[in-house]
Amino acid sequence: MPSFTGKTAIITGASRGIGRAIALKLAAEGARVVLCARNEIALAAVADEVGEGAAIAPLDLRLPDSPQELVRLSLARFNQIDIVINNAGATKRGEFLELTDDDWADGYALKLHGAVRLTRAAWPHLKATKGSLLNIAGTGGRTPGAQFTIGGSVNAALLSFTKAMADNGIRDGVQVNAVSPGTVRTDRFAKRMEMLAREKQAPIEDAEAIFIKEAKVTRVGEPEDIAAMVAFIVSPAGRFLQGSLIDMDGGFTKTL
Length: 256
Prior knowledge:
The protein is of the alpha/beta class and 256 residues long. It has two domains: 204 residues, Rossmann fold; 35 residues. It is built from eight helices and seven strands. Strands 3-2-1-4-5-6-7 form a seven-stranded parallel beta sheet, sandwiched between helices. Helix 3 packs parallel to helix 4, helix 4 runs parallel beside helix 5 and helix 6 crosses helix 7. The protein is globular, with a radius of gyration of 18 Å. The mean pLDDT is 96.
């Protein structure tokens, strides 16, 4: 029997990239999935890939009431919540002095505050099902960079939040962990490679090799790599993991 038969999973940021890959992986293992993002058309396309057992929730989780609405929609459709994957949230890169207050506020609004609010709204239901909460953070939380002052700060906060909620999870029977992906082949990665090629005055087809050499990593990750790790963590086989902050980054994180 697939690992997640009879389970319901909420995945945020599910319209593309890592979130889409997680949704497809959990669904392939038997989960019913609630897909959340702002783009309804893109969500519908992922739901079509999943087939039966998918519901979409086109919501902006930066808005304070949206996480509670996401939980309400999930319960109305599937009656229970077993897994929550907080994956939504992209932060702006750039020179620190060029980043505005609005850039900082927007960075925190979705990836941290949206995750906190969804966790609060879903927690009683995860407690009831002895479920799993997993936060998708990022390597900047432990290895900050000059171009990633917002993202590094937000991810560090999300990792700290994960550790704190893991203690609550021990008390309430909820598994809580985080995965920090390294550089993964997404639309954002393609744009970064275009910028790198211009900076190095190199052909675009050479940009990835240049990046791998300079970042000192084994390779660029695929969304499916992260999805496979997530599926293991929230499966019965991964249940001994609690409060773990897992770097999946091809060796980018050098610190202990």
